[in-house]
Amino acid sequence: MLNIRSITVDCTDPYRQALFWSEVTGWQEDPDDPNHPDDPEGRIVSGHGISLLFIPVPEGKMVKNRVHLDLMPTQRSRDAEVTRLLAIGATLVADHREPDGMGWVVLSDPEGNEFCVERSSAEREAG
Question: CA angle 34-37-39, nearest 5°?
Fold first, then answer.
């Protein structure tokens, strides 16, 4: 058995990605290893020991992600969370929301990496 230590994201600007994803997730930089604009990588950590690690690569994103994050809001509805994320720099890729409240929204981060926003637990329990 293995534990996930980091989810690594290729990017061109690790610092900017770390700032964006910190706002998305609420995860923080490591106080013993804070992020700086000229660092060779960026990293934010969860309260559960998993980190998002941003590594610079010379090429830009070329095709759809083979792996992406499915995110579930903890403090807002799906729709309120989508509105918040668009306001901080996410881009709408595809809207799969259904009239009955089901579905999800595909967004991308500032460098084009896709992620999905699903309904919150409260929305799921409500039906």
Answer: 65
CA distance 75 to 56: 32
Range 1-60 classified under CATH 3.30.720.120: yes
Cα(84)–Cα(2) distance, rounded to whole angstroms?
34
What's the pLDDT tens digit per position in 31-55?
999 999 999 999 999 988 899 999 9
Homologous superfamily assigned to 61-127: 2,3-Dihydroxybiphenyl 1,2-Dioxygenase, domain 1 (3.10.180.10)
Torsion angle, alpha carbons of 12, 80, 84, 90, to 10: 30
pLDDT at 61: 79
pTM for this model (two decimals): 0.91
CA proximity to 112, closest of 92, 127, 85: 92
